[in-house]
Each structure stands twice: as structure tokens, then as C-alpha cells.
């Protein structure tokens, strides 16, 4: 049973995953405030760990070609337990959407439009996401390429413009913090930007050639991780020890750009880029929520519930945190553990049970 | 059905009209008062500061003073308020003026000497936090009151704050002024050992007019001013910090004097720590220069003479650095960031020393090597005035 007949290509999926990971590039303070000058190394290690987790996602998805996460749950756990587990995922997806929407709110009201009421910004933002979701998955993913290229250009320019402000001594001392901070930092990077990709389980079935899934997903991780690495390395080199106290290091470092008073105060362009990437990320999470709802309630089409879901996301985003400080604390200390339940533990259990119950990769899919 | 879509379209248009026209954060230029500089002074009250905001009058910028002498049409005006902290004081401006203060365009924050001695972080915190203010605004300490120095009307520029900014930038090119942005100051405060250093400006009479000039460096311990360094020491600071891009070194030669203009230079600073705990900082300076003028009749066109002058320049730079570092060692202020350097290269040694860094800093020895290469002697090979035989 399919909710729509849209297909996406492997390349679109790759760039969508890249842009999705980059959607978190505003939130580097979660990591930088923990592991400071060694964060770049933590990104590399987390990428390796994420490779393994992504591998698990791919194996699980390929066991059930053409099926999304909710259908997989139904098959593996039976329809009742499966539904309960799907409800957990639904909750998780909702919280992801709300947290990211909250980040948009924090950013816009903190840096761009401080006097505008938060709800207005969020309503307009989520409305655009809803519009994208209604257009369907292939329309949405088509923009992944554009957005990835856009962020490559922006990142490239910002690095070129900031070369004169970079001090490579800022990366030292190397590995001089307690081990626990490194573990925490790896946990944060793996769980927050990288493994939120679990929402793509709702998109995997749309791929036109399931054989290409592995290649496109892992390549997408590579793009996202490389860019995140460059962003974190740039921020550390430019801002030095002040990265630890700034609430949005990646935005502050582009604010410093000043080429002999000619190319200066360009940060609003970067703000737009950040918002575009967040738009892409939230749209995809949004889409996953809507499909999950449609599957759980056995709807024939998902479109009627798009706006309702949007309203729930807005309300949820408005009530989640009392303050951005609470948000940052959650991001550094609670979220990595909380989210790993849904991003690592549940898929792993599903995979193990599927293995025990003897679901095999269908032969015809292998032959094709 | 068709009617329904038309209805939707009308609703959408209505929503867009209402949502997109109004904007809470709209700030029109003619409702803003653009601040280009701030001055912070100690106020007469015990714990209060006096803040001077310098605002531009855009309509007067391009207008020359052609009208009658009584009519002043300066392109700026200074307003001062007194309050407990920066935020409260800045809000006072908004309460009292017809326009909102817009601080994103401020170029300099001038801190009065008296306030600097008392500690300034609490007054700069606002500038670090506020979404409008920028981290690359210049900080400077002034002799006397910031309020006074900000009302010295420059001759070539129309706005004092811009003038101060240009003076600082020019001074930086000429090795007479360090350049410290707000973020550099914050970074030095965050470091456990580094002492912040800010440029100093003062009023000096240049012929008939008073002008703002730079005058060495102010040395801080945490956020409190503890002393000043001369212009010569400022040069040493810039050499070590690899900030020299141009400037002049004056050398005494056996016969007469020579001015050696630096064209470019690069400084590499390394740190060494031997087993007994002795810390040596290695400074390696390379660069190019031009013989820009000379006093005396010595002929520098021969290779041995060039080597002689290079040697003298190298010695001069080396000695001035040594002297200045000694001065800061007496002040217990590590303005060069040697502590951070130690932290970067030898974090374990640093951990042991950081609690008592000021005494460890005094024991640091320097190993300086300077290697300047002469690129030319200007348009002349030999001086026009020849030696009398």
C-alpha cells in the first residue's frame, strides 16, 4: 500500500541527506561548548560511528523493500505491538520537529527580528514547510541538491573571507580534556546531526532503484559530515577560546568577516542560508510525521492532515522550553541520550527481532 | 469547485496582505539615531558611569561649513547619560531622544582612564551580548575623559569617532598602536594567563589645532588597567604578535643614522620547555625592508654596508623586544599570550604553572632571531651629500 506513487533517485537522496545534516549547522554550540578545540576530531570519529548506524538502517530497510518504518514495525512486531512502537516513533518525530522549529524561533528572535513575537515567525515558517510537504516528497527532495550546493558556496566563501582571521594555534592543546567530555561530544554529534536521519526511513521506500540505497545514503553522510567538519574547524580557528561562550558560534564567525571594510556585514545572507537549510530539515521531519500518522490511522492519502500536524508542531515548539538556555542544556546533556533510544536502540531491536523471526532480503530484489 | 478555489485565493491574498505588510522589527533610517562611537567614563556618583554616545547627523555629513560662522552644522552630536550600567544607560538615550539608538554601526568604544582602572568588563558585557552590537568594534583607552576626546573636532574627517577609528588603524599600520577588537579583549579575558592590551589615545596639539593621536598601549590585569607601555614597547608587542605589515625602524649607525622602512614581515613564535622547567620563548622574525632615509654621509651602496645596516636593524628590533618583554615581566602582565602558547604546546607544564603564572612569567627567557633583508634603497644609491675628504 502506497500513500503516493512518487519516486526519487539515489542522487536526490544523497543531497537530501547532506542538506539535512547541514540543517544543524547553527547548533554547533552544543558540541563546541563541550569539547572546545577538539571538536573537529570528534566530528571525524562520530562520522565513523554513524557509518555503522547508517549501515544498520540500510540493512533494516533493505530487508523490507518498499516498506517504511511503520510498516516494518507492523511486520516485525505484529500489528498491536508494532503500533505501540510506531507511536513512540511518532512522538520522537514530533519532538524532533518541535525542537528544530524552536531553533528557528530562537535564532530569528535572538539575532534577526528580536521584537517580533515568536508565534508569528513560527506560523509563517511552518506554513511554508506545510506547503512543501503537500507538494510531495520528490518535489521536496529535488531541492536538496540546490541547497547543498548553496551551502557549499556559502561555506567556501566564508572560509576564504575568514582565512586572515584564522589562527591555527586555536586547535591546541590537542586532546587535553577529560575523556568523559569526548564521549559526551561524540555522543552529541552522532545523535543530533547525524542520526536524526532516522526520519528518512519514511522516504527510503520511494527510491527508484533500491539497490542504490546503500551508496546514496552513505555518500550523503559523507557530504554532510565533511561540511560539518569544515564549519566546526572554521569556527574554532576564527573564534578561538570564545567559541565556548557564544550561543551561535557559526553565526558569530561569519559576522566577523571584514575584507578592508568592503565585504563586511554579510551575515544576513548567511542567516538566510541557515534558515533555508532548517526549512529543508523541518520539511523532511514534517513529512515523516505526516506519513507516520497516515500509516497508523490507515488513511488513503496524507494531504488532509498536513495543516493540522503543522499546528501541533507549532504549539509543541512554543511550549517545549521556557528559555533558549534550557534548550542548550537539553541539547548538550539530555537529547543525546533521549534520542539515542529512538535512533539506535529501537532500530537495533527491530533488526534483531527481524533476524530472529527469519525475515530475509527478498530474493527477487537481490536478483534485480 | 471553481468558486471554491477563487475563495481560497482571496483568503490567501487577505492573509498575505495582513501578515506581510506589518513588521514588528521594521526600523526606518529616519527613525534611527546612528551611533558611531561610545565613550565610557567614571561618573561623579560612586558606582555610576557616564556614557557618551556619538551620533551622526546624516544631513550634515556632505554639507561644508559655508554658511555664517555662528551657524554650526557639525555632522555629529554627543549625548551623555549617567547610570549604573551600560544597558540602563543606553536605555536612557532612548527615553530622552526622539529617535532610537542604533548601535550596530559603532566603530569604537573609548574608555576613560579612570574607569579602566576600576575594571571595565561589567560595562562591556552588554556590547558582547546585544544582538545588534558587533564583535569587531575597536576598543581603546584614552587619557583623561572619553567624553572630552570624543568632542575634539577633527580637521579632515567630519565625525570624531570615525577619526579615532582611522587614527587607530593608521597607527596600527605604523606600528604605533595595537589593534584590539571586542572579541580579542573577550578572548584575552577568557584566557587564564593573558593580560589584555588596548591602544591608548590622547589629545595633542598639532600646530594650531588639537588632534587625537595614539600614544602607546594600556596593559590590563583581568579587566583592570594596571599600566602603560610606550610607543617603542607597542612595536615590540606587534612584532611578537605578527601584526607588523609596515612601519619604520630607526637605527644608529657608526656614522649617522638610518631609517629602515619595513615592507613586510613574518613572525614565528615557538616555546620550549626543558626538564628543569625553564621556559624559553623563541621568536623568529623575517622580513623585507627599504632604506628610506639617512642622516649622514655614509655610502650604503656597497654590499658590506648593506649587511652592516641589516645587522643594526636586527639588533635594534631584538633589543627593543627584549626590553619591552622585561617591562611587562615587571608589570606581571603577560600581554603577549605566552601562557596560552605554553598551554597549546605543553599543556601539562601549563597546568602546573597557571595558578602562579605571574611569577612563572617573570622567569621566561627569550631567544630572538631577526633576519631582515634589504630590498632596495629607494630612488637613490648614494646620499647626495658626499663625505668631505
Provide tags for this entry.
heterodimer, A: 368 residues, mainly alpha, Amino acid/polyamine transporter I, two-stranded antiparallel ribbon, 14 helices, 2 strands, B: 389 residues, alpha/beta, GMP Synthetase, Chain A, domain 3, 2 domains, nine-stranded mixed β-sheet, 13 helices
Written description of the protein model:
The complex is a heterodimer of chains A (368) and B (389). Chain A is mainly α. Helix content of chain A is 72%, strand content 1%. Chain A has helices at residues 10-22, 29-35, 39-63, 69-77, 79-112, 118-135, 137-162, 179-194, 213-239, 249-255, 267-296, 306-320, 324-356, 363-367; strands at 258-259, 263-264. A two-stranded antiparallel ribbon of chain A has the order 1-2. In chain A, helix 4 packs antiparallel against helix 5. Chain A is globular. The model of chain A has no long low-confidence stretch (mean pLDDT 87). Chain B is α/β, with parallel strands linked by helices. Chain B folds into 2 domains: 27-229, no CATH class; 234-389, Nutrient germinant receptor protein C, domain 3 (GMP Synthetase, Chain A, domain 3, 2-Layer Sandwich). Helices cover 35% and strands 31% of the residues of chain B. Chain B is built from 13 helices and 13 strands. Chain B has helices spanning 2-21, 58-61, 86-96, 113-118, 121-129, 146-149, 160-173, 182-190, 231-240, 303-331, 338-345, 347-353, 357-362, and strands at 32-42, 49-56, 76-83, 100-102, 108-112, 138-142, 197-206, 209-221, 224-229, 247-252, 257-273, 279-295, 365-376. In chain B, strands 1, 2, 3, 4, 5, 6, 7, 8 and 9 form a 9-stranded mixed beta sheet that branches. In chain B, strands 10-11-12-13 form a 4-stranded mixed beta sheet. In chain B, strand 11 (257-273) and strand 12 form a beta hairpin. The longest helix of chain B has 29 residues, at 303-331. The mean pLDDT of chain B is 84. Classes of the chains: A mainly alpha (368), B alpha/beta (389).
